[in-house]
Design brief:
By secondary structure, the protein is α+β, with helices and mostly antiparallel strands. Among the domains are: about 70 residues, no CATH class; about 80 residues, Pdz3 Domain; about 110 residues, no CATH class. It has 13 helices and ten strands. The strands form four sheets. It has a four-stranded antiparallel β-sheet. Strands 1-2 form a two-stranded antiparallel ribbon. A two-stranded antiparallel ribbon has the order 3-10. A hairpin with a 2-residue loop joins β4 and β5. α6 packs antiparallel against α11, α6 runs antiparallel to α12 and α10 packs antiparallel against α11. It is elongated and about 90 Å long.
Length: about 400
């Protein structure tokens, strides 16, 4: 169950990211063509005001299609229309006219050629695969030729639509941290908030709501509790708690070594902070973690920080462990993963958001859109680097898989 919750949480972060792109591009006039919960193909869909909303067959994250991400080019005709030309040779001429118009940057002629070709394809007895491929190719070309195409928009609109994805993840991070600080992020108490399942504390019978009075027969304050557990060095301890008006002895129970620290597997309840203080604390933590993540990414260029990279496998495993430790722990991890997704996507590499932002700025300075072919060549480098990060993360995670 904890694994399922972890996977759903990761999917939710991706959905929030895509929702950011969707809402801002819609507000700025770059009307998205599709928005799915989950990834295509769709198992259910409906169209409202020209936008196709659907539920994807792959139930993780989300998907948004912004029209005309690239300036249309003659190469857009190749590949997906080739099969139609083979099955209906008389389509070769109209396909070539469309290719010529795009190559000449004559968008009026291209619109006319696309409409004519679409009508001819509808009349021909093509296989389902050829027809579907051709229709999708023409849809993409028409989107790129439309007035609401992404590549036509002013630089500030393009940057805003792309930044909106990482910004949505950052906003979610701050909201989650505010909620945590406002509910239990203040001064710690001796009252138990959560007990991790299968932990030494759970096996000893410790429960959420118990108030810890003594450890090893010695009265403790909130600060004393982790110190007493750590000083045990794994030796069994007897814990005295106040439960339902009675003193209850638990144990003896032996702490386990986890991440270099001896733990029993429970969290103490904290006093909630007032909203202004909770907001300040959330922004401070977000800034500190952002600085640390950026520093880690920077260290990769010098060969350092390699052991701090994690793949989706490790992220899910860490989230799953956090679920076992309790709601607060899980939401804290979810907030940090959301921030990591935002910062990773801002790397200036295609096909990441940061790459699109960088190219939008370059095109704005240049005054002319770059070709799809150039985007694709640069994307090969970006994809290779992203795959390299994934492999490094996976190599770090595999030894820890349990």
């Amino acid at each position: 169950m904890s694994f399922f919750v972890a996977v759903v949480g990761l999917g939710l972060l991706v959905l929030v990211h895509e929702l950011g792109h969707f809402l801002v591009s819609l507000a700025l006039g770059m009307r998205p063509r599709k928005f799915y919960i989950g990834f295509p193909p769709a198992v259910a869909k409906t169209t409202r005001r020209g936008i196709e909303y659907g539920i994807g067959a792959i139930p993780l994250g989300g998907f948004v299609k912004i029209p005309g991400m690239h300036r249309p080019a003659s190469g857009d005709v190749d590949g997906r229309l080739a099969r139609s030309a083979v099955e209906a040779p008389d389509l070769a001429g109209p396909i070539e006219r469309l290719r010529w118009a795009l190559g000449m940057d004559d968008h009026d002629a291209a619109r006319t050629a696309s409409a004519s070709l679409r009508a001819l394809i509808a009349e021909r007895n093509l296989s389902e695969g050829a027809r579907s491929s051709a229709e999708k190719a023409l849809d993409d070309i028409d989107d790129a030729l439309g007035p609401d195409a992404y590549w036509r928009a002013p630089t500030w609109k393009r940057v805003s639509a792309i930044v909106a994805g990482p910004a949505a993840n950052m906003l979610l991070t701050i909201v989650l941290l505010i909620a945590l600080f406002a509910s239990s992020g203040g001064k710690a108490t001796t009252k138990v908030a959560e007990v991790a399942s299968s932990s030494p504390a759970a096996k000893a019978g410790l429960r959420a709501g118990d108030r810890i009075l003594e450890i090893g027969g010695i009265p403790v304050t909130p600060k004393d509790i982790p110190r007493r557990i750590e000083k045990s060095k794994g030796r069994p301890l007897v814990i005295t708690v106040f439960r339902d008006g009675n003193r209850v002895l638990l144990g003896p129970v032996a702490p386990k070594l986890s991440s270099g620290v001896y733990r029993l597997g429970f969290a103490l309840r904290g006093e909630g902070l007032p909203l202004p203080q909770a907001t300040t604390a959330a922004l401070r933590v977000t800034g500190e973690v952002t600085r640390d993540i950026v520093a880690t990414i920077g260290h990769l260029t010098t060969g350092k920080g390699r052991d701090q990279i994690s793949s989706p496998v490790g992220i899910v495993q860490g989230s799953s462990q956090a679920v076992k430790e309790g709601t607060d722990s899980y939401l804290s991890v979810l907030a940090l993963i959301s921030l990591s997704i935002a910062l990773l996507n801002l790397l200036p590499l295609l096909p990441l958001d940061g790459g699109h932002i960088a190219f939008a700025v370059v095109e704005g300075i240049r005054g002319r859109a770059l070709t799809r072919e150039f985007y694709e060549r640069v994307s090969v480098v970006g994809i290779a680097l992203v795959v390299l990060l994934f492999v490094i993360g996976l190599s770090n995670d595999i030894p820890n898989i349990s």
